[in-house]
Amino acid sequence: MVLVGGGLNVCSSMHPRNCAEADTFTTAAKSADMFAVLPEQLTSIANNAIWGEERVIEQQQTLAVLEFVRSKVNGDRLTERDLLRLWRSAEIEIDGIWVSGRVNYSALTDRERNFVLDQLQVISTVENSSRRNSANVRQKEYANLAKTKDAFTVEIYHKIIELAQQVAGTQRKPRILVITAAERDPFASVDFYTNLFEEAGAEVSWFPLNAAYQAAQHIEVDNKASCDQLPQYLAAYHGTYQRSRVYPDLAKELEAFCKKGSQAAVEQIRRSDAIFITDGDQSLALQAFRQPDGTATAELKQIEAMLADGNIIVATSNAGTALMAGGRYQGHRTPMITNGDSYNAMQFGAFDLAAPQSGCDKDQSCANGLSENHLTYSAEGGLGLFPWGVLDTQFSERSRQGRLIRLQNDSQTRFGFGIDETTALLVSLGQSDTAAEVTMEVIGAGGVYIVDNEKTLSSGEGAAINLSKINTHYLTRDDKLEIKDGILRTRFAEWKFAPNNNQTPLLYSGDLFERDNYRQLANLLCVTQSQQATAKTVRVGQGYTARLYKDSSSYARQGAFRLNGTELQYCSYRNMILDIQPAN
């Protein structure tokens, strides 16, 4: 498995800032999503039941602002950037009251805003094409890995291709299936990923497995899968609308895939060498792989069998990585994290409930008394392909140490793994009774934070939680670990050396769980002779103090690594001990 923490920045026609050279793509490549503000689209926005009675004012203001925008553009097509600029800069009067487009835009929930934009989006077509009926030729996003600025992004994608090639053998290109099941709009990134892997040397196909597909398979009409209802299922499960207008060819591909059924899908997996699950929402992706009763679908069973035999590479990014956790380890279920930030995790604890919708605080629609930043998880886990602990992503960049630690404590989970952006954890399953259960290696720009709860002491509940003797490790490039019989062993890269900085500065952070403050503080402790670092995180008079310290078992190694002209400094450590307690 190749478990990526997110943050991969590839040169593409829609993201030219990631390209090492200007003008990498021609004008035939898609550079932006396109929108049009037309009367029939405003009618769809007005009539849809997505607006509850309590949101009538927001609906009316949105329609009025968009009608104003329509009067300015006269039916012209707009990029999303131009549409949002006009929307947010609008100032209009409604019944004697001035309405700001910026305030209106900000007042919408993510669900409402996505709905409106979906209704306004139109197909991007190739201009000045020599082909007949060029207006009907859908414009596609293209990627160019060879001209991507970030060398670590390139390295990780090449590693996926390399491992898939090992499975395929030397006689043909590796076959990779791209799965966009985690994405709200499962069509949006298809062109990008298929072109990316093809350009990198693979034979690639979109594998349209998603929640809407599974719903169609389970809801039969005349003893057949209800594939003609896919647009309704996409709206109900993914919250995405009007996709057949924007991606007509991909919508037909999804329908054809649906009509062939799970037997054909399983055969397609069997013939592949790797699958790549993209970013998005792990709870949404889970519905593509599990039946309504929680059991594995035929597609997941095929992946499980091939992975156990070493006949497939499973590569994931961000939400796709979190999805891998599950199953059982040492008699305990391994949960799947679904939402939350570190402060709210420490303050309120972990909830085995469905994740609240993003933006639900705005319209008070968050269910079960949660707020949109509360820590939630699924005790049943995700796909269960990684049973050794909780998986979290975009880790150090968002200081998610607190939420991982709290979830492990509340769910009684032994190990947790937090993978940084532009970083991958390579996971190899043991192939014999004498080998380790699993071995792992870190590549990329960042590191992997590991929590071992075996000796953690816990007292108090809710905001009064007091945790001590939390054993933490941080592995970086080329470091390895193995787990066997419940024992985790680490091995640092041979090119790293003991820190030779003799300074002992006083280390302190005033806001531990913001930005990447935790990583910065721990790194200073790693590279100096200081024995401890202290920190706090407090909001509105409530919060926590923390102490990260070394003991006789603590061990650190540092080193520099250069990749294609980019040099990074790394410091890895094991057995740094963490205590967290209420600040008051």
Q: What does this molecule look like?
A:
It is built from 17 helices and 30 strands. By secondary structure, it is α+β, with helices and mostly antiparallel strands. The strands form seven sheets. It has a nine-stranded mixed beta sheet with strand order 8-7-11-12-1-20-21-25-26, sandwiched between helices. Strands 18, 19, 22, 23, 24, 27, 28, 29 and 30 form a nine-stranded mixed beta sheet that branches. Helix 17 links the parallel strand 27 and strand 28 (532-539).
Total number of strands: 30
Instruction: Detail the poorly predicted runs.
Output: 128-134
The largest β sheet comes out as: 9 strands, mixed
Could you say which structural class the secondary elements and strand pairing correspond to? alpha+beta
- Provide a count of the helices: 17
User: Which radius of gyration do the C-alpha atoms yield?
Assistant: 25 Å
Shape: globular
Q: What portion of the residues fall into strands of 2 or more residues? A: 25-35%
Distance from N terminus to C terminus (CA atoms, Å) equals 44 Å
